[in-house]
Structure formats: C-alpha cells, structure tokens
Amino acid sequence: MLGCLLLISVNTFAQTNGKVVEEQYAKSDILNHNVKYTIYLPADYETSNRTYPVVYLLHGYGDDHTGWLQFGEINRYADKAIADGTIPPMIIVMPDAGTSWYINAYNGKQSYEDFFFREFIPFIEKEYRIKGTKQYRGVAGLSMGGFGTLEYSIKHPDMFSAAAALSAAVRSDEDFMAVTDDRWKEAYSKVFGPDLKGKERLNATWQANSILGLVQSKTADELKGVRYWIDCGDDDALSKGNSLLHIALTEKRVPHEFRIRDGAHTWTYWRTGITDALAFIGDSFRQK
C-alpha cells in the first residue's frame, strides 16, 4: 500500500514540472552560424495537442542562453507560477545573443535583430506548438536583455502583446557618451563602432536604437500597441535611465507599469521579479 501511495505522489509531482531542453540550435544564414537556445515547455506540453503562448526571455551581457536557467532558475519559478495559476501555461524561449545587444551592428557583419525576426521567431513557432500571433507572444529580459526587450517591442509593436524589462540598460545620450573608454572597448565597440569618443558615439546605430530616442520618435498611439512592465532596483546605476523612460512614457500618456524595488543589479533582484513580470505578460495571453 505504501508503494502505491509513493508511486501516486511521484507521478503527481512529475506532472507539475515542465521540461527544459538546455541546448538546441537554430540555423542562421543571416549570422552565418548556428544559434543556441534553451527552451522551457510546460508540464502538459507532451500530453496535450493544443498550442501555447510564448515568451522570448533575453539574457544579459556576459551570459548566454543558459543564464536564465542556471542563475535565474526560470524553470522552478515558471513551474510554481503555472501550478498555482499565477501565469497560464506558456513556452519560454531563451536564445543566445552573445554580446550583440540584440541589434544589427554598425558594420552589417552581425545583424542579430534581422536574425531574430526573420529567422528565429519563424523557426521556433514552426518547430513547437505555439500560437503564432501578437496576442500570444511576449518578450522579457534583464539588463542587455531588458534593452533588447524594449528595443524589439518599441520597433516591432505588431509582434508582441506585452514586454517586461528588468534592470534594462537604458541610457541617455549624455550617459552613453560618458561610458569609460575601457568599458566601451569591452562592451560596445563591436556593435556601435570602435574608438568612438564623445558625440562620435551618437552615430546612426545609436540613433536607430536608443530607447529614449525611439520613444520620442513614436506617437503615443504607436507606443500603446504594447503593454510595458519596467522594473529596476533602487541601488542599480541603471535606475536613472529607467526613470527617464518612465517619465518619457508618462509625458506621452502611454500606460505602463513602473517599479523601483529595493535591490541592485543582481540575480537576487531578477529572481524575485521574474514571476511578477511573467504574470504581467500572462495577463495579455488570457481571454478577457
């Protein structure tokens, strides 16, 4: 009798845990190499025939497609949130973006944004049972991935119903010009251009991708096409840029959720924020 009870308990537990496939590959002709990705499939994916909404979850600078799994424990948080009804069952896709900033590089040699929309999304949504429409597609990310989240949702509002940016790397023109030369060489030179100083950094690539600039270039109606969640720690140097984004959206009367919580630019902060971010996106997926 005890063995039967144990078997039932194990089976019940197994059914509440999603499946993670840690290293898959998407072929890219645009980037001229295969791109790794990790995918989370909800617990009932393999026993159902239905299609699911999807969230593209973007990693930060210095991480890769495994960051949200290894350090963010995204499978554990998603399992719990789905099990208790906080979020609807969803597929979560985590692509490797290297240090691309999720955009097309200044010299045309690394066009990650083109890859993401022209190759990656079509591939993923053909490979898995995904509801391939705007209403059931969301994007989220941290730091560089938060930058990518805002970048993609502002520039491609026809693609996403909701966007959740955690500690997004939002900078004013002045702050971008003030990045130290060492940091520029390490983090920005391959994407925006090498050996740029001062106003040279405000080149065409920056103008096409500055989050604050993009907000100013869009009408309120264009921006209202996506629901925005913005969350940044009070001890994070990026809280200034996120606050400026909040002000810019407020001045345009664009509805959005803005959070400044106690915390810094750390995984502790992102782990404690990801469930609320997914819940915000998940509300867009639910039938009203």
Task: Please supply descriptive tags for the structure shown above.
single chain; 288 residues; alpha/beta; Rossmann fold; 8-stranded mixed sheet; disordered N terminus
What does this 3D model show about the protein?
- It is a single chain.
- The protein is an alpha/beta fold and 288 residues long.
- The protein has a single domain, classed as Rossmann fold (3-Layer(aba) Sandwich).
- It contains twelve helices and eight strands.
- The protein has helices at residues 2-15, 67-70, 74-83, 112-127, 144-155, 173-177, 181-192, 204-209, 211-217, 220-223, 239-251, 267-285; strands at 19-26, 35-41, 54-58, 91-95, 137-142, 162-166, 227-233, 256-261.
- The chain has an eight-stranded mixed sheet, with helices on both faces.
- Strand 7 (227-233), helix 11 (239-251) and strand 8 (256-261) form a beta-alpha-beta unit.
- Helix 3 (74-83) packs across helix 12 (267-285) and helix 9 (211-217) packs parallel to helix 11 (239-251).
- The longest helix has 19 residues, at 267-285.
- The termini are far apart.
- 42% of the residues are buried.
Structural class: alpha/beta
Percent of residues in helical segments?
Answer: 40-55%
Q: Compute the separation of the termini in Å.
A: 45 Å
Order of helices and strands: HEEEHHEHEHEHHHHHEHEH
Beta-strand proportion: 15-25%
The tally of domains stands at 1
CATH third-tier fold name: Rossmann fold
Rg, Å, rounded = 19 Å
Shape: globular
Number of helices: 12
> Largest sheet, described in full?
8 strands, mixed
Strand order of the largest sheet: 1-2-4-3-5-6-7-8
Task: Report the top-level CATH class.
Answer: Alpha Beta
What is the CATH architecture descriptor? 3-Layer(aba) Sandwich
Low-confidence parts, pLDDT < 50 over ≥5 residues? 1-14
Number of beta-strand segments? 8
Could you state the CATH homologous superfamily? Answer: Alpha/Beta hydrolase fold, catalytic domain
Overall pLDDT, averaged? 94
